[in-house]
Write a structure and sequence with these properties.
about 90 residues; mainly alpha; 3 helices; about 90% helix; flat
Length: about 90
Amino acid sequence: MIEFSLVLKFAMMILSITIFFCLYRAVIGPTIPDRMIGINLIGTKTTVMIVFTGVLFNETIFLDIALLYAMLTFITNIVFVKYMEMDK
């Protein structure tokens, strides 16, 4: 039987690899919405990795940190959209 912590570590490794693909989209993306989606995906995957770390170490403080990080990512997206609207 596969140990649960091994599955979490494998999932975190896969998420880390896919973050690099999102980073590529955020940097090279041909349009501004593509870049925004790449940045938003990086924030979402990072939030999931923080939650997995909390489950792996059995610490609930990581869940609070993940919630704070998710809110910060959301606010950053809103500010970026407002900035792009002002630019037009």
